[in-house]
Amino acid sequence: MSGPLEPVARTSPKTKLLPENDKNELMPLIEKNASLDTSIGLSEANASDYIALLKPRVMSLVVFTGFVGLMAAPGQINPVLAAIAILCIAVGAGASGALNMWYDADIDAIMKRTAKRPIPAGRISREEVLTFGLLLSVFSVVTLGLFVNLLSAFLLAFTIFFYAVVYTMWLKRSTPQNIVIGGAAGAFPPMIGWVAVTNSISMESIVLFMIIFLWTPPHFWALSLFMSDDYEKAKIPMMPNVMGEASTKFQIFLYTLLVAPVAVLPWVMGFAGPVYGVFSIAMGAAFLGYAWSVWRSPVGEAMMRPAKKMFAFSIFYLFSLYAVLLGEILVRKALLVAGA
Amino acid sequence: MSNDRVTLTDKQRRAQRSRSIALAVALAAFVVIVYVGTWAKLGANILSRPM
After folding, report:
1. CA separation (Å) from A241 to A26, A67, A245, A250?
2. Membrane-spanning regions, if any (chain B) (predicted)?
3. Which residues of A have a CB under 8 Å from any CB of B?
């Protein structure tokens, strides 16, 4: 090898969706973080940085809801193939998270909540993340298709596409309805789990989808109420920044009014038992109570306590609904085995 | 030919080792998944190979 070794830029930030004057402000910010290593571009990224790209906390909820969908479905699936299905759903969800971080590196650098992610922190380049995300997407979809069934693989591919392209590249920066429509991506996992067993999309799987789909707006809008400054800085058109706080609070209440009865449907339709029925009614009433207090809270209040409480409760609400559904299914299966 | 060589810092060496181990684990896991998955999917038919 001859000649001096040229420095290699660790990232090439994307700012095309932002106005020219904002690009000028952003570029040095990312470049500053991105050029920690100026010798040759050797990476200092650990395996944990690559795991962080998969958004492990989001992935855990995806795995859980996917598993509940798989267990709730009628019929049998080989346990090994069930485990492969869940793994593929997890990796697919992680891949879409990585693709999201690849595309959103510029706005991640601005927001407090995301500024320490591997790309804005300068530990991994955008190109590496793109390759990582695409590779995991292909592997997860192909593996699911080969070992489970083609319909579930198609749904997983569609979910990745929907999150990475429809939500991240299109909706997120262009409409305050971004998380309403984009919420579909997070709602697919239980349906994929269901389809992995039955190889068909039924009303029950659509109900499992709808619970998460309708839960997403109140969950995210509660967050965006007390993080609106961050979203404003990054110029993301979240509902509070575009329509105002009062309108957002009212819409949170409306969506909670929708999700509460829909969450009872598994019991009404007969694929969940009375314990789930009573629990979902009680939790729906509590969720509505939180939404009511958010709606009635004074506009412009700095602490946003009702919104913070509602955000925390929303996570517990979804998790506990699916946990009770799973618990009932497991008890039912255990009783069947004991009776047989 | 000059003697330009890349010398890794301790941090870079540790990071490289961490990535290498993770990649090896991921590859080994994938091999196991394909092997076990094939058995689970095909069962006894795995021995049935009509020409």
Report:
1. 21, 36, 8, 14
2. 21-42
3. 1-5, 37, 40, 42-48, 50, 78, 80-81, 84, 87, 139, 143, 146-147
**Helices A56-72 and A305-339, axial angle in degrees (round to 10):** 40
Select from B19, B30, B37 the Cβ nearest to the Cβ of A45: B19
d(CA A77, CA A194): 11
Question: Nearest Cα to A266, choosing from A316, A324, A319, A216?
Answer: A324
Please tell me the distance from the alpha carbon of residue A46 to that of residue A243, in angstroms, as a whole number. Answer: 42
Distance CA A296, CA A290 (A): 10
Can you tell me the distance from the alpha carbon of A91 to that of B8, in angstroms, rounded to the nearest whole number?
Answer: 31
Query: CA-to-CA distance for A323 and A327, rounded, in angstroms?
Result: 6
ipTM: 0.83
- Give tens-digit pLDDT for A163-204: 999 999 999 999 999 989 989 999 999 999 999 999 999 999
Closest chain B residue to A42, measured at CA = B12
**Cα–Cα distance between A137 and A83 in angstroms, integer?**
18
Whole-number Å distance between alpha carbons of A185 and A205: 14
Query: Which tens digit of pLDDT belongs to each residue from A125-149?
Result: 999 999 999 999 999 999 999 999 9
Q: Which residue has the tokens 């004074």?
A: A298
